Amino acid sequence: LHLPEGPLLVSIVHDISERRRLEEELHHQNLLLNTILDNLDAHVFMKDRTGRFLYVNQAVADFLGHPIAALIGRNQTDLLPPEAIAHLQELDEAVFTSGQAQSREEQLVDQKGQTRYFWTVKVPLRESGQPDRLIGLATDITELHNLREELERRATTDDLTGLANRGHFYATAATRLAQAQRYGEPLSLLILDIDHFKDVNDTHGHQAGDAVLRGVAEHCREAIRTPDLIGRMGGEEFAILLPETGQESACQLAERLRQGLQDQIGRAHV
Predict the structure, then answer these.
(1) Closest alpha carbon to 218 in 175, 160, 263
(2) CA angle, 140 as apex, 135 and 145 as ends, to 5°?
(3) CA dist list (Å): 167 to 164, 174, 233, 234
(4) Over residues 184-191, mean pLDDT
(5) For residues 219 and 98, what is the distance between their CA atoms, to the nearest angstrom?
(6) pLDDT in tens, 145-161
(7) What's the CA gap between 192 and 69, in Å, rounded?
(8) Among 146, 167, 147, 148, residue whose Cα is nearest residue 156
(9) What confidence score (pLDDT) does residue 83 get?
(10) What are the residue numbers of the active site?
C-alpha cells in the first residue's frame, strides 16, 4: 500500500438517519401521550416515597393552581394542608409497604374552598437502581358522593321536619332496645300527638300546618340530649326514644315539652 506524501485527510461518515427517525418517533409518542394525559377526565400523577411530584397532568396542575413545570420536583407538603397530607399518606404508605396497587375514596379542598371527593388508584412503580415511586389515577366523584349522601339522608330522614323517619326510627329503636335489655339499662319512649291539628290545616291551609310541624320538631330537638332520637311517625305524630332514662325522668321531659309548646302557642296568640 503506497500512500502519497503530504498531509493525510481521513473522513468517517456515520449514517444517523435511523437515529433521527427514532428520536422523531419518540418525540411524537411523547407528544401523543402527554396530549392524552392532559385531556383525560382524571388526575394523573407520579410521586416518590417522600411525596415529591415527578409528574402531573394538566388536571392536577389546575386543581393545585400552579403550572405543571412549577409542580415537578415539589413536595406535596408544600402544596396541601397537613390534614390532607396525613390522609393521602395513608394510602401512599400502603402502596409502598405492600408493593400492590391500592384504591379508596380520598378528599381534598380545591382552590375555591370546596371539598372534592376522588376515587383514587395508586400503583407502585419499581425499577432497579431507581427510588420507589407510585403512579396515581384519581377520578373526581364529588357529584356521585353528594348524590349517595342525599339518597342516604332521604332513606333515613323526614323531608318536612328533618327528623328521623318512621323506618329509621323503628330500626334504631330495635337496636337500642336490644342493648338496653342486654345491659339492664332503662329505656323510655315518648309519643307526641298535636291536638286538633286537622283544624289548623282546614282553617289556615297546609302551609301553615307544615310550619306548625316544623316548629314542634325544632322545639323537641332543642329539648332532648344528643343520645336521644326523635322521629316523625307520620302526620302530626312524633316519637322520642330516651336511652338510659327511667319513667320519672321521661315524664318530666314530656311535661316540659308540653308546657313549652303551650307557652309558644300562647305567645303566638298575643
Answers:
(1) 160
(2) 130
(3) 8, 11, 9, 11
(4) 96
(5) 53
(6) 999 999 999 999 999 99
(7) 65
(8) 167
(9) 86
(10) 236
Residues whose CB falls within 8 Å of the CB of residue 245, separated by 6 or more in sequence, listed in order? 186, 187, 188, 228, 253
Q: Helix or strand or coil: residue 255? A: helix
C-alpha cell at 10: 481521513
Q: How many CA atoms lie within 13 A of 17 on its CB side?
A: 2
Q: 119 - beta bridge partners?
A: 105, 139
Cell of 97: 409497604
More confident residue, 129 or 114: 114
- The tally of CA atoms less than 13 A away on the side-chain side of residue 144 is 7
Q: What is the β-pairing status of strands 229-234 and 133-140?
A: unpaired
Summarised one tens digit per residue, pLDDT across range 224-266 is 999 999 999 999 999 999 999 999 999 999 999 999 988 876 6
Cα gap 162→153, rounded to integer Å:
9
pLDDT for 16 equals 66
